[in-house]
Each structure stands twice: as C-alpha cells, then as structure tokens.
UniProtKB/TrEMBL annotation:
InterPro entries membership: Aldolase_TIM, Radical_SAM_PqqE_MftC-like, rSAM, rSAM_sf
Species name: Actinokineospora guangxiensis
Taxonomic superkingdom: Bacteria
Record-given protein name: Radical SAM protein
Keyword tags: Iron, Iron-sulfur, Metal-binding, S-adenosyl-L-methionine
Domain called Radical SAM core: residue spans: 45-264
C-alpha cells in the first residue's frame, strides 16, 4: 500500500500557526499514532489520550455571554472523590489532562492536590482559567503545568468589567493582570492571553457594545506581561455556531492583527484561530459532516461533576452522556462507555475543532504505512 504523507498546516491570515494548535499534526507523534490507528480500525482504547476535567461548575465571575451558562452552579466533585479520580487517571494511562470547565477550575478546594497527583504521575497538564485565583496556586501552576491560558477578553478594566463582571464589589481586572505577571516571572510552561471577540446587539441589529477595538492593545499588554502567546477567537452563539460579522468589523480586527504581527519575536507569538478564519472568509456557520461517529471522542473525553460526556460541545447534553464516575472508578466507567452516542452528521452541525482530526483518522483505516512519524512533543491532541 502507498505511504500516507504527513499533512501540511495552512496559515490563517496574519497569525502564526502554532504546532500546539495543529491537532492533525499531533496524530503523527510516535506514541500517539498507534492509538489513532486503533480508533481508525474501530477499536477501543484502554483510556483516552486526553481528558478535559471540570472540577467544579462554580465561578466567581458573572459573564453575560458565558458559553457554559447552562451548566453553571450545578455542583462539583467532592474533595475525596476528585483526589481519587486524579489517581485513577494516572493508573489508566491518560497522557494529558486539561483543567477547564463550565466553572472556574481553581475554585475547587482540592485542585492543588489534583495538580500534584497528576504531575507526579507523569500526566501533562493544561489549565484554562479566568486568572483570579492564580496567586493561590502559584507554586503548582509555575512548576507543574505545560501551559496556562487565561481568558481575559479585554485590554482595559472598563471593557473587562462590562464583559467579565465579577461577583465581587470591585473590578478584578487589576488582580488578573498582576497574577499573570507573577506567573510569567516563574513559569516553566507556556502562558497565554485569550481574547474572545464579543459584540452586543439591539433588536434592529445595531451593535451596542463591543470589545473589537481592544485587540491590538490586549496583544501588546500580553507581551508586556510576559505571555508566550496571544490568541484571539471569534464569538460563538449558545449553540456553538460562529457568528458572521460586518465587513467593516472584520477589517477593523484584521488591521489590529496585522499591527500585532509586528510584535512577534522569539518569545511572543500571535496564534491563529480557525473560527476567526471562518468568520473572516464569511464561511457558512453550518459544517456538513458525512461520518456517523466521532473518532476524537475515543481519543479525548470530558469529565464533569454531572457525568462524563463525549466532548465539551456536548457538555450537559443528556444525549452526549457516556458515563458517571460518582460511584465507580474511571477505568470501569470507560470500559463500559459508548463513545458513539453522538452522530456528528446530525448532532454537530456547527464548525467543530475536531472535524479535521476525524477526517485524518478516517484516512488511517486502510492500513497503509506512514512516512515520517515525529518524536513526541505535545500530547494535547
């Protein structure tokens, strides 16, 4: 059989394509590729390669546009159970864990124990956080995480407070920025500044509020803080569909991205966003999928206090539920799980970050040899 060539990443506009975002390329790492081949042939894995772990659904912010509003404040793992779970993920052979969630992961009082257990077990860790509690776990985050991405979505306290209001009486924007500076001084892994483009509209479609004017300023602040990268993403609606923008707004953002590109150097990168690329091109928010099962659901799963789901897109969706680990070990739950409960052709009409991976896995089922597998560099597939 002919050899299968490795894919070539495509650049997105003026932004850099980082290897950490090339999910298809990561399938061709020596220790990951065998798992992808098993899945391509319809097999089950003893454990997923990556777990998205939601320690809690509690959050100390009250963001009006929160994509996880439907699951907020619906519970959290007990301290003993989540500590046990961390050990179970290590024993099962999970390669990487992303601490994320419908809530703020650092709000769980046992999160320090979880981080230490996973790190000591050889599991690589990533964290998506609002940044307010970084100082509480600075030692763990600085020394034990592969990456920390902070959702800021603004460059000034005024804009931050409109889009990411705190439940406290005062703005937490200065606290978040100070926490990021402290982490930047000590970090062993990468630190990212995340900027989600957001707009609010009147009934007639007029834009009433926006953070579009702070893209450049936020990127410059990210570099000043000491972040390794600045990542800008397009707004999604509550059903995960991209929201296409007026031409003048797209141009306004593109001008700032072009200016930001001038700040890139060996220590600071501007990351491309696939969903912004779709918005910039005016692509159809509907993404047709002609396959019935999601291969990535076997390679990566989402554990929440309210059950285990096939992926974050279906977090909280009863149809995406594949198990419950409240009263059973993870390995037992995973062995009995049906990761094919979601039909992408019918249940995932939005533009999905996993779609290119699913297409790539499908090409591996013919058993052909693969040229040029690469050494391991990033298990976060």
């Amino acid at each position: 059989m002919p050899a299968i060539p490795l894919p070539t990443p495509r650049p997105l506009g003026t932004a850099h394509v980082d290897k950490s975002l090339d999910l298809v390329g990561k399938l061709y790492q020596r220790s990951v590729h065998p798992a992808a081949r098993v899945v391509a042939d319809g097999g089950r894995l003893a454990a997923p390669v990556v777990v998205d772990l939601d320690p809690t659904t509690l959050c100390d912010l009250a963001c009006p546009e929160c994509i996880s509003s439907g699951v907020l404040n619906t519970g959290q793992f007990g301290g003993d159970r989540i500590a046990e779970l961390a050990g179970e993920l290590v024993a099962a052979g999970v390669r990487a864990v992303i601490l994320i969630g419908g809530g703020e992961p650092l709000m769980h009082r046992s999160i320090g124990t979880v981080i230490r257990t996973l790190h000591e077990g050889g599991v690589q860790l990533g964290l998506v956080t609002n940044g307010t509690l970084i100082g509480r776990y600075l030692d763990e985050l600085a020394g034990m995480l592969s990456w920390v991405r902070v959702s800021v979505d603004a460059a000034t306290a005024d804009t931050y407070d409109r889009f990411r209001p705190s439940r406290r009486k005062s703005s937490v924007f200065p606290l978040v920025i100070d926490n990021m500076r402290r982490l930047a001084e000590r970090k062993a892994g990468r630190l990212g500044y995340s900027f989600l483009l957001m707009q609010r509209f009147a009934e007639d479609g007029t834009v009433t509020d926006s953070n579009y004017g702070e893209v450049y300023e936020a990127g410059a602040l990210a570099k000043d803080i000491g972040c390794d990268y600045f990542e800008m993403k397009a707004m999604l609606d509550a059903d995960h569909f991209t929201v296409n923008q007026r031409a003048e707004d797209v141009d306004r953002v593109e001008e700032q991205l072009a200016k930001l590109a001038g700040l890139e150097d060996d220590t600071f990168t501007l990351l491309g966003s696939s969903n912004w690329g779709a918005v910039r091109a005016g692509a159809d928010p509907l993404q047709v999928k002609d396959y019935r099962t999601c291969a990535t659901a076997e390679l990566r799963t989402t554990i929440t206090p309210n059950g285990v789901f096939v992926c974050p897109y279906h977090r909280g969706n009863p149809r995406g539920l594949i198990g419950d680990i409240a009263g059973r070990p993870f390995a037992e739950m995973w062995a009995a799980a049906d990761t094919t409960v979601i039909d992408p052709s019918a249940d995932c009409p939005f533009v999905c970050a996993r779609h290119p991976t699913n297409l790539a896995v499908a090409t591996l089922s013919d058993g052909g040899a693969v040229e040029g597998l690469v050494e391991d560099y990033d298990p976060f597939i």
